[in-house]
């Protein structure tokens, strides 16, 4: 068809389009013949135009019908796929930038738009999981990490992220499994090694945790989390000065690590450097003023400095954040005892279930020995191995000897039974010898009185009472 059409056009041009020089060299007769032919062509021109128009329209209609039957207008697979990929990548980059700026909610919104263009994009899964993790929505984050892992089962950053979520959900043993998967892929991944150490630390496996922190730091000595956590292990080993060395290393890298600042303050408390401890705890509180543990630790320092009213203020702040903080309740009760507010102390300590033994201390101040003992029984019913309860129920070396409740009630054998239970858990007590020396001094004074008057009945009675106490103390000493 194209060839016939081209032949028609070429023939018309050859016959009816003549050059100027041809006209100049033609005779009059030749010119008349050309004009007659041209006039005839004009008549044919309209008919040819109509025929071509009709045929063109017919062909166009045929093409359109065929186009519609093939449904070529409904979807262009290649073009749409290309646009989707481009838009998805563009939105991904925006989401990453927002995540880097810690605008996690906005990053998730952008990422969701990206998933509309490409709902199977694993990178978008990972970005959304990371944002949810940082928003502390760990269960939701795990769902998206799992989707990413289905596409990239060997991608260590995704595996590590899933482990981190499990760690914050306090599923430490399960979290370790995921960190170990990363370590199996890359034995020198220092962050996963350190994270495994954190799990062991949370499981109170301090020696094992310390080993893994050392492994992580041997690969990368600049991981502040590993440095701080090693310091925490050393605190558990009671190596407070050594712990401070590692905490200082962590703070040299990240000076706003509130946990490291707090742990350093705790070390200084143990080293009895209370004013220095307060300086570091204040730094921790400046970063995170709503951390109950930091407030409680500062209150403990103030107790050591005999600033009981000020200490109570910090314990009360801690309790507004965590009303079940046993340590804050216990320390507040201790302050109230020091301030001789015994009834208030009982109300406070009654809330600290694992420290009910201190209520007995307060009741004894009020000479309510019989009322004190049931509190021990309640506490021990909750935790038989609570050393503080056992110690206060039968141990003369307590700062207020609760064992005297039983002795005051003339229940010496029962007191000894409680000493046995306490000593079975903690067979040593450095304060017992001091008490023994006091009883021996007392006996010497009574003996002196009896030399003057051998029938002085009060001295005889008091000497007998001291001997009774001494029997109990000697019973403890043989285990020390």
From TrEMBL:
InterPro entries: TPR_rpt, Ycf3/AcsC/BcsC/TPR_MFPF
Top-rank taxon: Eukaryota
Stored SMART domains: TPR (SM00028)
Pfam families on file: ANAPC3, TPR_1, TPR_16
Keyword set, alphabetical order: Repeat, TPR repeat
Sequence ranges of the TPR repeats: 156-189, 190-223, 258-291, 292-325, 396-429
The protein's name in its UniProt record: Tetratricopeptide repeat protein
Organism field: Paramecium octaurelia
Lineage: Eukaryota, Sar, Alveolata, Ciliophora, Intramacronucleata
């Amino acid at each position: 068809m194209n060839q016939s059409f081209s032949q028609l056009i070429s023939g018309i041009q050859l016959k009816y389009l003549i050059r100027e020089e041809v006209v100049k060299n033609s005779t009059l007769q030749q010119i008349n013949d050309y004009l007659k032919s041209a006039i005839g062509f004009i008549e044919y021109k309209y008919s040819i135009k109509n025929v071509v128009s009709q045929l063109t329209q017919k062909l166009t209609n045929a093409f359109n019908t065929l186009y519609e039957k093939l449904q070529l207008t409904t979807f262009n697979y290649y073009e749409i796929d290309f646009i989707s990929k481009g838009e998805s990548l563009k939105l991904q980059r925006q989401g990453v930038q927002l995540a880097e700026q810690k605008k996690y909610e906005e990053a998730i919104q952008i990422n969701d738009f990206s998933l509309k263009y490409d709902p199977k994009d694993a990178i978008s899964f990972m970005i959304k999981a990371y944002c949810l993790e940082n928003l502390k929505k760990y269960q939701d984050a795990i769902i998206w990490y799992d989707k990413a892992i289905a596409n990239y089962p060997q991608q260590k950053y995704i595996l590590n992220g899933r482990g981190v979520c499990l760690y914050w959900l306090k599923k430490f043993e399960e979290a370790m499994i995921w960190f170990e998967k990363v370590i199996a892929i890359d034995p020198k991944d220092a962050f996963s090694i350190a994270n495994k150490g954190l799990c062991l630390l949370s499981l109170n496996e301090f020696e094992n945790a310390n080993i893994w922190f050392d492994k992580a730091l041997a690969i990368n000595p600049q991981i502040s989390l590993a440095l701080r956590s090693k310091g925490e292990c050393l605190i558990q080993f009671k190596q407070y000065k050594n712990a401070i060395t590692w905490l200082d290393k962590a703070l040299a890298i990240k000076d706003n690590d509130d946990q490291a600042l707090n742990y350093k303050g705790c070390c200084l408390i143990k080293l009895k450097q209370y004013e220095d401890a307060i300086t570091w705890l204040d730094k921790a509180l400046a970063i995170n003023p709503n951390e109950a543990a930091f407030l409680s630790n500062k209150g403990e320092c103030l107790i050591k400095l005999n600033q009981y009213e000020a200490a109570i203020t910090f314990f009360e702040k801690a309790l507004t954040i965590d009303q079940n903080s046993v340590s804050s309740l216990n320390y507040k009760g201790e302050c109230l005892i020091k301030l001789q507010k015994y009834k208030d102390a009982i109300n406070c300590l009654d809330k600290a279930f694992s420290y009910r033994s201190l209520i007995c201390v307060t009741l004894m101040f009020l000479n309510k020995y019989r009322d004190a003992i049931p509190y021990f029984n309640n506490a021990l019913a909750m935790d038989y191995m609570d050393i503080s309860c056992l110690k206060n129920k039968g141990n003369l070396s307590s700062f207020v000897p609760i064992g005297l409740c039983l002795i005051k009630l003339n229940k010496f054998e029962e007191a000894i039974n409680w000493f046995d239970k306490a000593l079975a858990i903690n067979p040593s007590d450095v304060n017992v010898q001091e008490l023994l020396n006091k009883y021996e001094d007392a006996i010497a004074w009574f003996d002196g009185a009896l030399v003057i008057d051998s029938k002085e009945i009060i001295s005889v009675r008091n000497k007998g009472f001291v001997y009774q106490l001494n029997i109990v103390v000697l019973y403890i000493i043989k285990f020390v």
